[in-house]
Design brief:
single chain, disordered N terminus, 219 residues, 9 strands, globular, 5-stranded parallel β-sheet
Length: 219
């Protein structure tokens, strides 16, 4: 489970106030769209572009649980559901999570099955921005109800250039991210579709076409 960025959190708040109706869906049960990618591949940029520019897709982020305290103006049930580490462990033991991660001791993030079902029943198309293992787990659980998309850089060397140009990490941190990216890219074959983000606008349009077809399909 990946913690949402500030921009993603703002989009989640905006989405939470949007009506559940959609020209594409009407009132039928929603579907699931799973995004995974190595850091620096442009996944978050693509997802945020879809949610901002294509409201007709009726996309909503899944509202995750976390055991940390709220920050700033965060509200329970909007950015996250805030629960104690003890309750989080109890819910893990009860099998209530689709996927979860303990980032470090007593700091958990996870996706509740019950919350996803609530959003699907409301007709929302639920978006997951998760790590590769979480993405595979959610896809395996929901099968044809879910579309899994892996956003991939054109090469490791191109990813290295992007991370260097981003200027947010040390050289050692970049090498760590690259090693992790190589590992994550071995999971690409387990996803329904792979989008190679060589040109951002092209990748955005390819991703939109996949979502539009999937959301309008009868399965």
């Amino acid at each position: 489970m990946e913690e949402l960025t500030n921009n993603t959190q703002a989009t989640q708040v905006e989405n939470s106030t949007r009506e559940s109706s959609s020209p594409l869906l009407g009132r039928k049960r929603g579907k699931l769209i799973i995004f995974s990618a190595p850091s620096g591949s442009g996944k978050s940029t693509i997802v945020q572009w879809l949610m901002k520019n294509h409201p007709e897709l009726n996309l909503y982020f899944s509202i995750s649980c976390t055991s940390r305290s709220p920050r700033g103006t965060e509200r329970n049930g909007v950015e996250y559901f805030f629960i104690s580490p003890e309750e989080f462990r109890e819910r893990i033991n009860n099998g209530e999570f689709l996927e979860y991660e303990e980032v470090y001791e007593n700091r958990f993030y996870g996706t509740l099955k019950s919350q996803v079902e609530k959003q699907l029943d409301a007709g929302q198309n639920v978006v997951f921005d998760v790590d590769v293992k979480g993405g595979v787990n959610i896809k395996n659980f929901y099968g044809n109800q879910a579309l899994s998309i892996f956003i991939q850089p054109p090469s490791i060397e191109e990813l290295r250039k992007r991370l260097i140009n981003r200027a947010t990490d040390s050289s050692d941190a970049i090498e760590t991210r690259l090693a992790k990216a190589e590992y994550e890219m071995t999971f690409a074959k387990l996803f329904d579709n792979v989008i190679i983000n060589d040109d951002l606008q092209t990748a955005e349009q390819e991703t939109f076409a996949l979502l539009e077809t999937f959301i309008n399909s009868k399965c």
